[in-house]
Fold these 4 entries.
Entry 1:
Amino acid sequence: MSSKTTLADVARLANVSVATASKALNHTDRISARTQRAVLKAAEQLGYDKANRTERSREHSGLIGLITSDYNGRFALPLLTGAEITLGASNHAALLMSSHGRPALEKSHIDRLAVHGVDGLIVVGDTTNSRPPLDPQTTMGLPVIYAYDPSRDPNDCSIICDNIGAGAQAIEYLLNIGRRYIAVIAGPEDFQAAKDRVLGAQRTFILYDFQPIAILFDAWSEEWGERAAQLLVEQHPHLDAIYCLSDEIARGAVRGLRSIGKRVPQDVAVIGHDNWFIFAANAHPTLTTFDNNITIIGKTAAQFLLDALAGRPHHGVTSIECPMIVRESTEPRRHTALESTGRVYERKTS
Amino acid sequence: MSSKTTLADVARLANVSVATASKALNHTDRISARTQRAVLKAAEQLGYDKANRTERSREHSGLIGLITSDYNGRFALPLLTGAEITLGASNHAALLMSSHGRPALEKSHIDRLAVHGVDGLIVVGDTTNSRPPLDPQTTMGLPVIYAYDPSRDPNDCSIICDNIGAGAQAIEYLLNIGRRYIAVIAGPEDFQAAKDRVLGAQRTFILYDFQPIAILFDAWSEEWGERAAQLLVEQHPHLDAIYCLSDEIARGAVRGLRSIGKRVPQDVAVIGHDNWFIFAANAHPTLTTFDNNITIIGKTAAQFLLDALAGRPHHGVTSIECPMIVRESTEPRRHTALESTGRVYERKTS
């Protein structure tokens, strides 16, 4: 019997839901000690835990599964690299599978990984928007960390970029270098990253009692950056700084400003976002921008997963700071070392 | 005894090298029928094949391992996607591990994958340069397909981009649209992709009895494209076309040409390479370029691996055609659909 016991059997015997049984067995959530005891007792009675682990895995396979919905790999590979650095130190390795954001594929990939004995999962998004948590019947008690796109369940463990902090820092920096007529060119309004960076910017505007010239939402594209910058100068000829919410938008904005005779950074300072090297460091001028610190997110996700495996699970959303990299689009070239690598901006307030 | 039998024991009994024993057991290489019989007999005598498979895997786990040395995911993720499309149809799934081009990590990843029962391997490069084949003691008889970077062993199965064909087509197209003073701006001379694209271009120059104005090698960067384009116009004011070996170089070339008053494409037509969407389709003008067809490479690699698993291994290097995508940098805008998606150029000769 024990080899055919399912989580549902355990839940039934303990008189709890499958989700609660899964959480109790995995120690991944705060549930009452009484419920946890009931579930553990039921599992023991049915021989569930042992049978289940023997059936589907070697104990501590040393493998961690990453499931990504990122198609072009821009987030998934740096995050995988970060996770590997941390996992390697404890003799774990990471396997990545691609779900293209399709829940059915995500579920079937996790089933495969569970059958082949991974110890835990890192779910990697590419939008910054919150996502539904995985079904406990899918994860079958495996610990899960959500990276880049947080889980909607506040008890889950999620690691994200501190986009609010980045937005606040961008405006603080522009004010510090003496800019007073500042606009924001954002991406689409339905991206959490856009909302959060704008929210952070607004906080600094309020703190210093400044009004932004305009905050414009549209697309994550160079074309939008170009069009928006031209529009802004037309309506506000005294504009002296633009905070762009992506490096693509920033490159477009630089192009738009130049097409109407404005110099960057002398007339208008421009900040980007993402520190996507090929865009930001190869631009002309090179772009001041925020680094999303994806490798650090990967390292942190791996560490939190190892902690969960060691019985010390984390809960809630952890924000990783995005350092600001200063390059020529906000400060005229002073020395060549600045050109591509840039320097990290030291915050005055925090 | 059988559970401790190693491939080396089988090789010793059959009086062949470990590499030959591995190839014979896996049917992955052309070796004499006599040798193959000797190895299979030795394996049977020692109970090797069965013991080995039982120990390290379920038979046909349905899992394929991808090992990539690509850090930023630009090649690895689209290739993974292509492989998944093909594998999904036969109920296989793909796991990706990142080796950062470090042979020791590559070996340890393959060991992990073999222990966890993958059926075969796809090794993904990111340079186009040929690479040493994996040690048979590492692959332990698993079939291997090399993608993007070919194996140096001509008996291995490798899938690459047809860079020679792309170079030939670029020049043919420029001649067809009436350009006569054509230069090539290449990347670093030690990249096979640069050598092959230049070789293809030279073949068309010879075929049509034309001399290129110049062929300049240096870096895969916008900065180099800009500098090279300015240099070319300075020395050859009648220049009317540039074939650039990457989209980044092409974007730099467009910038350089504009900075000295040349219009693209009216004065100088510019072609890029890679069809890296964010670069090529967001450029101004949008870039005519070659698509590396990475997803098709992934699909083909997966199909060839499934063929090997079914006892029909492929050998040698298979080149996948890179379609040319025509956009505004070579042909003035005629209709809006051309702007970002472009159209595939139909070859006149082949």
Entry 2:
Amino acid sequence: MTQIHYPALDIPRPYGLFIADIRDRLDAKTALGLLEWRPDWCAAQFRFSNDHLDLGLPDLDFAAAAAAGIKTVVVGGAPFGGRLPPEWIAALAEALRAGLNVASGLHDRLHDNELLRKLAAEHGGQLFDIRGSRGLTLPVATGRRRRGKRVLTVGLDCAIGKKFTALMLERQMIARGINATFRASGQTGILISGGGIAIDSVVADFIAGAAELLSPDNVPDHWDVIEGQGSLFHPAYAGVSLGLLHGSQPDAIILCHEAARMHVDGYPDFPLVDIQTGIAQHLELARLTNPDVRCAGISLQLSQLPKADHAAALAAMEDRTGLPCVDPAITGTDRLIDFLLADSGSQRG
Amino acid sequence: MTQIHYPALDIPRPYGLFIADIRDRLDAKTALGLLEWRPDWCAAQFRFSNDHLDLGLPDLDFAAAAAAGIKTVVVGGAPFGGRLPPEWIAALAEALRAGLNVASGLHDRLHDNELLRKLAAEHGGQLFDIRGSRGLTLPVATGRRRRGKRVLTVGLDCAIGKKFTALMLERQMIARGINATFRASGQTGILISGGGIAIDSVVADFIAGAAELLSPDNVPDHWDVIEGQGSLFHPAYAGVSLGLLHGSQPDAIILCHEAARMHVDGYPDFPLVDIQTGIAQHLELARLTNPDVRCAGISLQLSQLPKADHAAALAAMEDRTGLPCVDPAITGTDRLIDFLLADSGSQRG
């Protein structure tokens, strides 16, 4: 009965991942996300030189990629602010000339670039802008409670596991026979799941309304697993996070954290809040649209810690919070799912 | 030294206010705001019939208005969601045919309407879209502390006096010789002051960045008086309010309330929070970008109460909060200004 009220994406595959001049893995979130969750869809990488980030895919030029049957060049990263650098535009123009499609999740829209539009028309290529409302007229949020259950991943910062945690939750819930759907709120999640709304790119008045659209009414035992965005504690993006929190009206939140992260990434003057404050402030604000909201656990990225310390870090976090704590990439999310199921009996269907 | 980094507006005057089929004063915020703060600019009203809201201005048709020297038809209200109804478009087309310009603060842009664009070109009229980024490339917020002082009006709901309070503060601060600038964050404030950014209409990732742009670095004794938007407690618009709060990094907030308002306007399932919770939650969230933020008082709309109860209502609110409480339309804002000046001595210049 899952109704999708927003347009699905249908981007021809396989993909070649456009790395361009990216060097840092943190700047290639979209490429790495696709490669992790949809490895079968990724057949090549396009880099400006061998000095740039290597995903371990074949390095092809655009002509060779087209000859090998690759259909779409997917921009694999997002420069700060979502801008499209001129040298990327020049390269994507070459991709279109080679007969490929181009997909991008940047704020700077491919469709707003005259050269790319012209080349796409001339060479029969398609341009896919993942961000934006994609032609949809977004509603003002109503605040009306919706049927079905919802869990939202939230975080003390950006790039801290919100998408990964939600995708793993969906995968493991479905494996256990639970009726669950991942709801993408960002460009990488949309590319991975083939649908969703990039909440950070809608007009500000419609953030919560877009979030309401993203997780529509459903059957009582269905779980929407909603990908979080930004952080309430981020000096640039907290508005996005709050609108998504309100519009999602989650029955449960999962707080994402990274064991070694001390301050907001790129903002050294903004130390991360402690985990208890993080939970309390999320719940306080979330109660506006769902007074029954609970925190169902912590998703803690351990990759920065020595392996020998992993179990102790998880146990310490469980002691501090009284909540299940997992690293989805290492332990999976079963303990979160157990908690969600045990805790949701009394909630509205 | 006030630097304006965003484009100023230069809309030909005088204005005719476009009321169309609006009946309720609450739906004509832009017209009423202009009439209140810039009466000299408003020379006519355009209504579909005499049954519709009467501002007390001459009722002219567009041809008579053009003959009388009126230059621009200003859309005086915003239908829910900021959409432009077809019958309004038809009327605005007639205005363009009569040789007038058209200005609108709706989310639906005049420039996106092919008919209006065509008629403007044919008849030499100009279209002004107040909302949107107006060609500006918005930055991601940095969180960097800026020089100069800032006061932001916030509210427990929309349409609760945030703009009025800020305009009165600016007027009365300037009258006292204080270096102060009103910073408009919404379409009506922009029309009144001739500049600003409609924060609710920017792409969500840039809310706080736009707010940073709106109140740039200034001399130490300068006050930006920033118009608030929405409410942290509004199920649709809280994201806008939080981004504006963070980007404004206010030294002081003024909390706006209406004595008789019991729930969020149009959302009967959302009772207003009590005033202490409202203050505390604003301050908690505002501390992210300005740890020294204070609440400098309450702006209480008394118009719904009998006149005999006004003084008692203000006194009761002062007792409850320990803060100065005014109705700017009745008492002025001097008590708020006194508090701001007394309280700001220790703050950074």
Entry 3:
Amino acid sequence: MTLRFASRLDNVETSAIRELFKLLGKPGIISFAGGFPDAAMFDVEGVREAANAALTEEPGAALQYGATEGYQPFREQIVGLMAAKGVQSLTPDQLIVTTGSQQALDLLGKTMISPGDKVIVEGPTFLATIQCFRLYGAEVISAPTDENGVIPEALEQLIAEHQPKLVYLIPTFGNPSGVLLSLERRRQILEMAVRHQTLVVEDDPYGDLYFDAPPPPSLLALSDSVPGSRDYLAHCGSMSKVLSPGLRLGWLIAPAELLGKCVMCKQFSDAHTSTFSQATAAQYLKAGRMPATLDRVRTTYAARSKAMGDGLRSQLGDAVRFVQPQGGMFIWVQLTGARGQEKDGNALAKRAIEQGVAFVPGTPFFAQNPDASTLRLSFATADIARIEEGIARLAKAL
Amino acid sequence: MTLRFASRLDNVETSAIRELFKLLGKPGIISFAGGFPDAAMFDVEGVREAANAALTEEPGAALQYGATEGYQPFREQIVGLMAAKGVQSLTPDQLIVTTGSQQALDLLGKTMISPGDKVIVEGPTFLATIQCFRLYGAEVISAPTDENGVIPEALEQLIAEHQPKLVYLIPTFGNPSGVLLSLERRRQILEMAVRHQTLVVEDDPYGDLYFDAPPPPSLLALSDSVPGSRDYLAHCGSMSKVLSPGLRLGWLIAPAELLGKCVMCKQFSDAHTSTFSQATAAQYLKAGRMPATLDRVRTTYAARSKAMGDGLRSQLGDAVRFVQPQGGMFIWVQLTGARGQEKDGNALAKRAIEQGVAFVPGTPFFAQNPDASTLRLSFATADIARIEEGIARLAKAL
């Protein structure tokens, strides 16, 4: 057969992570590879009660077609969530509900990117963002980062040089970097957006997952104090990392004109996000169960993060370098090659699988200039005993 | 602010239907405008039991990230549904679950259509298909139809002339036409697909909604008897018209290479469809509740269709011409202009709203050469008394 496919497919390949995941079926393997939350943390009873309440109180709305913009009671609950995180003066009509925050990225790509347009992302960044934007024909430019996130001076230079359609950042506990963009840099980036009239997309799925102190305010929360910046800021949020990824609920906050165009595109992407999921989540939030669930997740992930950091330090010593995360789900590790030890993440990934532990090598997270000495370890899904055993296996593989 | 949007947005406008829908808030209006099923038909208790069973038996799977291809038990249930409709030898890996069948269209657009490519649709056809494909840069060509569906000779001529990337058809109780493509024509179209090596997309959300006799086999069911045709056939199915649109569940069956590319694109569109919705639907189908629900819907819609047809004949007489539907949700009406009566569907729509009844004028359903004398009436949501009253108001408006 001779189907001729769209030329946009030439810009992407199937995810390297996906290929790796096929190996994870191997029995007994300890995986630090996933980007998943721990299913044992899900508040199943809370979701059950919420789903039942939705079907009792609003069965028509929960099961019928709904507005493309989202189910109004859920939009109102999201405004409440955002207010609790310092985002004031947000109204429900300034956000739309998306089918996971992945769809928010897809809608931003669809509305903003023409073939050949440039976008800037952090190096490293979320793999699916790179691929999503490339499918719309973007040339994806990688901005340098350090342990405080993206480097503003370097970013501004790239913006001036490339005139990108948008800059995509995960400022808080980034995937895969785990790092926190400093408050000072957050302010600089908002000012830069205004100065260059360039859209900045803040992806914030992990901001709730802090361990001790809350992170600095999101770019969105901070935008009130940087005049004009709200006109150049889009913000993606998610219910996936704490409540449940299976509900597929995210949201997009953006300037009105852009948001309207995203709604138009969403009409033809999936018409609207599952109203059953939205009504369930709205009931869950209304029932006030989120704070307790969040506390439980924070405490658990904090302990696992510590266990993994301790293990890396004690068992891999000078072979690795990393910043101990203050939140999120990931440790981003650099192989130092000290004393002739393995310095290539891809090579180590293969040897690690043989030893019964899996992680994602860092290369695919870079849109340009991949640093092959990096790897991403997730501490979210394995319990402490398995984290310790997994790190021991990693040490053996090294 | 000065955001520069993607050029693909220049190909579409916000749906005319959407603008019309804003008027439907007027109190007391009887609406034949929606494409919605009747929410009163939803088996709310069945969905509740299914959701609870999903959360009891498989809470991890129902709430966690899932495979982009779909939740395996739901894929297996879909194979069962299709087998009951005469589709033999289908396996779960030959289909993927989509976020409503709208997403199947979006994925077909994303994988198949480069800017400037041509696609052929029926004139008239589903409005959101036209817009969806245009967003990917398609030039949408309209093929002529009659009371037996698309006219094969005319379609073949257009295929030869335009070399389209795909031909999109709703062969069974089409939206908006309500008509049934004849068996003979179905076979001709499959042969044509093979002869011209052209992908045919069969959208089949309404096939289950027959009133008396089942419709002819779907193109998919028929493809077993037309050698080679399966290689050029994609089929979109939906849970939205009977079980619930709010679950946002559809599926796509397509040749392996195309299906693989759709999976890759879906990864970056929404990662996967709500596993909570999928697990709920899988439990619902497993519980065997679908046949009774379907019977109830068929009986109700058959009576409403008859009431609307009778009303049109008795109250509007020679001012209208239409084919009495044998299934589906719509009557497609042509204004004849007899005895100097209104012949313009758009003008009538405005006058009808003033009289307290709404419908969608036919113009937006045409990708080319709109027939302004047409209108689409849905008989699905209003009960018989309101249908009779609505038709009386329509007569008054005329």
Entry 4:
Amino acid sequence: MTQQTPTPEQEMLNWGRLLMDGLPFADLIAARDRDPGITWFDFWMSRADSYETMGEAAIADGHAHTAGYWFWVGSMAAQYAQFLWFDERRQEGQLRKATLYHRAAPLLNPPAARVDLPIDDTTIIGYLRVPTDAERPVPCAVLLGGLESTKEESYLFENLLLERGIATFTFDGPGQGEMLQDVALSDDYDRYASRVLDHLVTLTDTLASDRIGVLGRSLGGHYALRSAAKDNRFRACVSWGGFVQMDDWDFEYPMTKQSWKYVTNSPDLETAQIRVRNAIDVRPVLAGLTCPTYILHGAKDETPITEVDQVKEYATNAQLVIDIEPEGDHCCHNLGPAPRLRMADWLATELTR
Amino acid sequence: MTQQTPTPEQEMLNWGRLLMDGLPFADLIAARDRDPGITWFDFWMSRADSYETMGEAAIADGHAHTAGYWFWVGSMAAQYAQFLWFDERRQEGQLRKATLYHRAAPLLNPPAARVDLPIDDTTIIGYLRVPTDAERPVPCAVLLGGLESTKEESYLFENLLLERGIATFTFDGPGQGEMLQDVALSDDYDRYASRVLDHLVTLTDTLASDRIGVLGRSLGGHYALRSAAKDNRFRACVSWGGFVQMDDWDFEYPMTKQSWKYVTNSPDLETAQIRVRNAIDVRPVLAGLTCPTYILHGAKDETPITEVDQVKEYATNAQLVIDIEPEGDHCCHNLGPAPRLRMADWLATELTR
């Protein structure tokens, strides 16, 4: 299925993804050319430390915008330090990422307001950002992370939506970021998305409760399909490089399989595959998807393009927009801003018509 | 003086500069890996065409933000198509750049309002951008292009200032962009900057006339020093990789020498060097510089770091902040966002204290 299995370093040094998510090019060059005695993890965690120091200096000098930027870039450096390691580094990097983002949040423009939502025996930690100059109430997009992406990484995409007059809400659900310690990957991500929605619809002064959409990237695309299929309060749905089911996982790269094992809290890969296959299957509920839905997929994604056919086969009650990029890799990270702008424009249009 | 003379392709494919000025990474990869039968110029002009088409499609679909972005990126593609060619391609690319930016301007956020200012027998074409959510009147920064950079390329730097509450004004002066056909490089750039200032101080509802600064990049840094030295209405000055004089030009790369020849409208390099040496010398007036002044220089810039010593020697009446980056190349383009953020914060602080 795959043409070539990348080395860990090749899989981690995904230039399109890291740059489009906001890491400076200078850091990628430095990571590539680093002393071979310095591990990938240590390199990026050291960058995170530097950026935190720069953020603190900016605060001391009264430069709040710059401080917010450095704390956020530091958070991204910690993210990409840990995102494909599965020992104690994972947790250390995740904690560092979350901590730095918490520091960045009030300094971002517009700020990200932290929201804690109790559910079962745990808490959903999320962030709401509202465009400053738009007339309220405004529409809102709920943004979902994926297998190793979390609420902190959608910042640049949020900015695209915010300048189009759309508020954004991000959070960690089962198997993700700050929730992983309490709840592993599960088959009911939609319940967490609905819990978020229960909260958002109460913010009637700020948000237009009948204009809330959902967008997810990679595994988050799967979650977006599930969430919109199960909760028809979502008025628009975007699956950005997502998929329908995981009956087979031979196409996955070795480190990605390790990632599945990690987020399912499995003792071995065999167990992980069974758990993933059982939890990740939206076919039984996809007929419930009734809102307009946008599917972006790169034809050169290792996640098979046949997933798009499955969306068409099972989502029989939704108006689908299918956007296939012939040269796109996973999530079309290699194609620059065009696919992201198309998704942002489509979602903004659907939520404001 | 130089360690290595770059090939034309190496000089043009300046990753740090092109990325920090906003060209998508995917385009740089495509430029590097293009069919050898396609010239650098044709590759980028074709990208400009594609981006214009995408901008038009976005307008047709009602996506004004996206249209503005594509027209602007198209303008940048045309800029970097032509910036180091000196035959008819130069003028063709310049015209394309200006035309695409004119289309982008009203769609940018905040918009860039075109201003035409008569001077002598020609017209200064400039653009004013004003932060939308700041209380007026706001401070303003006048941004100056350099040897092959023009009013269109400062967009991302403008955004840094705008989010810090500072309006921006960019224009083409002698030897630059849309003015080059009328006026070649000259020794009185400051007169054009003062003409701009004469206009800006009349906009009393919008701009705080006693809080206007000037910043220039590369040769624009030289112009900034000259402009602030000759017109003490400028309250702060930034020289971003600038220089004081051009008595010697052995350090310049071959294509940069061609660029000097082009903007001085010289028949040969010998004539060009004489004209440049005569026109580009701020030492005689630098004692007139009295406003706070920030000097950024990369120690690995081919423009000698001794230029900083000359600023110190001649600018005896200004409070200087000297910021030398040991690993910085020309304008520190290779270092990512940090130097740009420092300049933006310093300038915003000086203009709001």
